[in-house]
Amino acid sequence: xxxxxxxxxxxxxxxxxxxxxxxxxxxxxxxxxxxxxxxxxxxxxxxxxxxxxxxxxxxxxxxxxxxxxxxxxxxxxxxxxxxxxxxxxxxxxxxxxxxxxxxxxxxxxxxxxxxxxxxxxxxxxxxxxxxxxxxxxxxxxxxxxxxxxxxxxxxxxxxxxxxxxxxxxxxxxxxxxxxxxxxxxxxxxxxxxxxxxxxxxxxxxxxxxxxxxxxxxxxxxxxxxxxxxxxxxxxxxxxxxxxxx
Length: 245
Known about the structure:
- It is a single chain.
- The chain has two domains: 3-80, Arc Repressor Mutant, subunit A (Orthogonal Bundle), CATH 1.10.10; 85-241, Four Helix Bundle (Hemerythrin (Met), subunit A) (Up-down Bundle).
- It has ten helices and three strands, in the order ααβααββαααααα.
- The protein has helices at 3-6, 18-31, 43-50, 54-66, 85-107, 112-131, 134-150, 155-175, 179-197, 201-226, and strands at 40-41, 70-73, 77-80.
- A three-stranded antiparallel beta sheet has the order 1-3-2.
- Helix 3 (43-50) crosses helix 4 (54-66) and helix 6 (112-131) runs antiparallel to helix 9.
- The chain is globular and about 55 Å long.
């Protein structure tokens, strides 16, 4: 089968440098499932689809490799990292610990302006989901969470959250296929915001942990079924170290 037949269809965004455009296009295609986990990323095909030279596409794949979304092996090529239980638990172990710290710290500092920005992001998220705009919904969801985290006042803590967050989005997109899960997680957003408005760090931490645990538990169950692991497979060590809400 030719490369052209196998190639995913992605859309070139109309902003930033060529490298930025390529990174955004491939990132969005991975997040939306247009380029599934394990898929090869062929430089010539991607460059042709994006209407640019190979150099910025190569740069974009290197950046995505740095985020943990892409694997590149010399003389073998590049591909989207597969979804695995080990990576899932490692990613969410990191997220839960960093984001809980950010939430607990933010609870001491949260302002009316922070709350207003968070409400605006939640409204944008709901509107985008209602209209079926998955990219806008994902962006608004990220804006909401990071509005909460940025209130902690630590630039380095917020910056450290970024890589694990982006990797987890590959998993979260699978959970969005379950309407009841989506509704529950949206309600939890409100609880997280209320906890920060109340300046209650314990409540904020519990709300965040419960929010992330619900997602990781659902995805882990799906991965086990897809992998035909059943109930006999031993979970990764980090799975047993995830905090409970």
